[in-house]
């Protein structure tokens, strides 16, 4: 069944693959982005997917942006909270600003994205929420005290929403990608990246489309009994 889907951070990296995969399923998709106007315009030109600019770290911007999307495309049935940033530094060098920026985007941003949409999902008796967490929220990571804290927190959000939404036809699940071939991972120094790939039993980085396929499944009508779960897609690097 064709539904309306919102993907935050949906014009680049894993988010772009998710937006395209949801469109290929027949859904009406809106993709948000924070700042890169050029990439968003190119994405819309290439895919026909509408993009909307707002900062997920701001509740007011999120609420207003979501209202615009719903005016354009109708009530949102599928939310993919994907927008995320890194500000990596060993803990002794991590600044309060690096901590706060990551908390605002990766954790508060998930609240800000889901909260304005939640009442409508409850009223209509249907919703699919997928939060993109990370392997590093499951296992921790050197130089990512901030990022790992948010991604672990995202799992808490999902497990709690799953309990609150179940009776209203809403599911909330998480996908924990491992190291995927995106700009975020390519920004890691090459030597470090090579050593990380050496720790992945699959012997390679993942592809964004491999994460997108998890999301299309979890957001389908057929996945109604999967609720509060975490899918790890990491090439065998870490098992919970
Ligand atoms: N484990 C143990 N030690 C490590 C390490 C690790 N994983 N990585 C670096 N170190 C050590 C280095 O060997 C070095 O030790 P020495 O001082 O004894 O030589 C020290 O830590 C690095 O110190 P620096 O002062 O040089 O560190 P820096 O301030 O320049 O920071 C860094 C460098 C930010 C840590 C950089 O190495 C880095 O980016 N590492 C990768 C972090 C990472 O994996 N991020 C994931 C990004 S992808 C993502 O987040 C997506 C996802 O969800 C999976």
UniProtKB/TrEMBL annotation:
Belongs to the short-chain dehydrogenases/reductases (SDR) family. Coiled coil: none annotated. CDD domains: BKR_SDR_c. It comes from Roseovarius pacificus. One of its GO terms (molecular function) is acetoacetyl-CoA reductase activity. This is 3-oxoacyl-[acyl-carrier-protein] reductase /acetoacetyl-CoA reductase. Residues 3-170 form the Ketoreductase domain. It comes from the Bacteria. GO terms for cellular component: cytoplasm.
């Amino acid at each position: 069944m064709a539904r309306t889907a919102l993907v935050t951070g949906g014009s680049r990296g894993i988010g772009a693959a998710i937006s395209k995969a949801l469109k290929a399923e027949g859904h009406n998709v809106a993709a948000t982005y924070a700042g890169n106007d050029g990439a968003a315009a190119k994405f819309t030109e290439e895919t026909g997917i509408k993009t909307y600019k707002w900062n997920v770290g701001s509740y007011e911007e999120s609420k207003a942006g979501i209202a615009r999307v719903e005016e354009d495309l109708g009530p949102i049935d599928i939310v993919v909270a994907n927008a995320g940033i890194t500000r990596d530094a060993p803990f002794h060098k991590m600044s309060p600003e690096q901590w706060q920026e990551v908390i605002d985007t990766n954790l508060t941003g998930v609240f800000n994205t889901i909260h304005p949409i939640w009442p409508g999902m409850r009223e209509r008796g249907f919703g699919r929420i997928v939060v993109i967490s990370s392997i590093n929220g499951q296992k921790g990571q050197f130089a990512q005290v901030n990022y790992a804290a948010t991604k672990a927190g995202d799992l808490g959000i999902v497990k709690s929403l799953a309990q609150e939404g179940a009776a209203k036809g809403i599911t909330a699940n998480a996908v924990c990608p491992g190291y995927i071939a995106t700009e975020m991972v390519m920004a890691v120094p090459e030597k470090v990246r090579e050593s990380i790939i050496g720790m992945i039993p699959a012997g390679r980085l993942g592809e964004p489309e491999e994460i997108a396929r998890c999301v299309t499944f979890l957001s389908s009508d057929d996945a109604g009994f999967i609720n509060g779960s975490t899918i790890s897609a990491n090439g065998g690097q870490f098992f919970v």
